[in-house]
Amino acid sequence: MWRPPQRIRYEPSQGHIPTREEAARARLFSPVAVGPVRLAQRTWVPAMVPWRATEDGFVTSDVIDWYARFARGRPGAIVVEATGIRDIPSGPLLRIGHDRYIEGLRDLVSAVREASAGETRLFIQLIDFLAIRRRPDPKKYFERFLTITGGHRDALGMADAHENDIRARLAAMSEDELLNVLTPPEFEALRFGYRERVTDMHLPHIAALPQVLPGLFADAALRAQRAGFDGVELHYAHAYTMASFLSRTNTRQDGYGGAVENRVKLPLEVFAAVRANVPQDFAVGCRYLAEECIAGGSEVSDAAYFGEAFARAGMDFISTSRGGKFDDAKQPGIGAAAYPYTGPSGYECMPQYISDERGPFGRNAEPTGAIRRRIREAGFETPVVCTGGVHNFEFAEKLLRDGVCDIVGAARQSLADPDWFRKIALGLGGAVRTCEFTNYCEGLDQKHKAVTCQLWDKDGLDDPRVTRTPDGKRRLVAPDWTPPG
Ligand SMILES: Cc1cc2nc3c(=O)[nH]c(=O)nc-3n(C[C@H](O)[C@H](O)[C@H](O)COP(=O)(O)O)c2cc1C
Ligand code: SF4
Q1: Per-domain residue ranges for the chain?
Q2: Which atom of ligand 1 is nearest to the CA of 435?
Q3: Residue 431 carries which DSSP code?
Q4: Which residues does a 6 A CB cutoff place in the pocket of ligand 2?
Q5: How confident is the chain (485 residues) per 10-residue block, as mean pLDDT?
């Protein structure tokens, strides 16, 4: 993982710990409407992929245990991890691209209702992503994968040579030399692995995305509603398809790229299709980037424009994140795929305790505040969720007091201690296990290993009732906590 060169160490603290009475008066524990859905409190567990689905994308008992554990902390809302809207193989990521997924998702919803005594509202994040391949072995790339073109022949001065001779010549060249022979996409495929972009208009299925995606998202949302969720979060953030449409790097010439009003067109069309396909008592919102944090990427002025457009269109909530792009990801090892959280923009998304002058806590607060101000100035009351580095009551309450957001998201802190909201609400904030922002969990995510937290995954391993990773070395859910008395 990339780290800022300043390497300043930050230590998260519990901050001011409120009494039970003070917590009861706090904004954080006051209700809020998310469109048709009422949250009992303004606490929100954002989407986190725990790598517990089957290879075919079905809910497992481990998936259910994972969400039930968060639900026992009774946050206002939980957003279930990024769930694929297509019926295509995508490894152990949850899927919702066919009716056969509804049953498992319904079990998940029931488990959350039961574990939170009906208090926690449940949303599911709907995602579309484009194809990405592993970085090839250069030998195999030149032997098999690369299509030899007239361009290569011209650049090498080998117009009439046998294809095998051209392949052998390319395989013997240095990267500097290859830069003059391969096209930029070919060079990228060699160094990082092939990756589709929304701007690959020569590919018919990419050109057709605006025709295809509204229906796919709308069908997936209806399945979520049939499974019993309270709403969906359209994933318009990070490195995925919809975020790529919003990005300043989107130069499509078909009316869906270039100017900011073109880039927001498909996200609005997807929203309209989803809204029209689900009942009015079902919430529909999105998560998108307050800043892309890449060279030439969208900035907060773009995000404020999008926020107003989403609010005007009638979204029930807006949740922000930042960064997490492929554009600056680290080169993967041979046989591995590029990962969007390995470069500076990935750091912005999940900043670690070793940081720069700005520190890892609240990097998204200022831009989210600017988005919310723009939405309010335009006359909309759409609730805004801000996430990033939140780990104690004082900080969460300040975000609400300062008008940065209406709901506070906390991903890693909730993983470290799923009961942290409940402990604070009960005046027991001193018992909170505070996240150290080491990104141990994120390292597991990157390797597609079952995500756990280093603060609890070795606890009670000798207890036969504890479910563990297949190697038996880590527990899969946080230890239980029961309020005293
Ligand atoms: C293990 C892990 C998995 C994540 N998966 C998702 C995801 O599926 N969708 C998403 O929008 N963000 C995902 N995130 C990002 C978090 O939702 C959140 O934005 C980020 O961790 C920063 O918030 P925090 O400082 O409260 O952890 C993930 C984060 C972690 C640590
Ligand atoms: S492993 Fe635990 S302590 Fe470390 S960053 Fe993740 S949630 Fe926080």
Answers
A1: 8-133+221-446, 138-192
A2: 27
A3: G
A4: 412, 415-416, 435-441, 453-455
A5: 94 97 98 98 98 97 98 98 96 96 98 98 98 95 95 95 95 95 95 96 98 98 98 98 98 98 98 98 98 98 98 98 97 95 96 96 97 98 98 98 98 98 97 98 95 97 94 96 89
Task: Determine the Cα angle at 132 with ends 127 and 138, to 5°.
Answer: 165
Task: Report CA 301 to chain centroid distance, whole Å.
Answer: 21
Query: How far are the Cα atoms of 51, 61, 95, 269, 476 from residue 58, in angstroms, in the given order?
Result: 11, 10, 7, 28, 18
Q: Which residues contact 71 (CB under 8 A, 6 or more apart)?
A: 78, 111, 112, 113, 114, 115, 116, 120
Can you tell me which residue has the tokens 């990033």?
388
Tokens of 65: 């245990």
> What DSSP state is assigned to residue 32?
E
Torsions phi, psi for 82 (to 5 deg): -50, 120
Q: Whose CA is nearest to atom 8 of ligand 2?
A: 435
CA distance 301 to 136: 38
Give kind and range of the element (H or E) at residue 226.
helix 209-227
Report how many helices (DSSP H) and strands (DSSP E) the chain contains, helices first: 20, 12
CATH code of domain 8-133+221-446: 3.20.20.70
The reported pLDDT for the residue numbered 235 is 98
Q: Which one of the ligands is nearest to 474 CA?
A: 2
Which residue's CA is the closest to the ligand 1 atom numbered 11? 47
Rounded to 5°, angle at Cα 471 from 468 and 472: 40
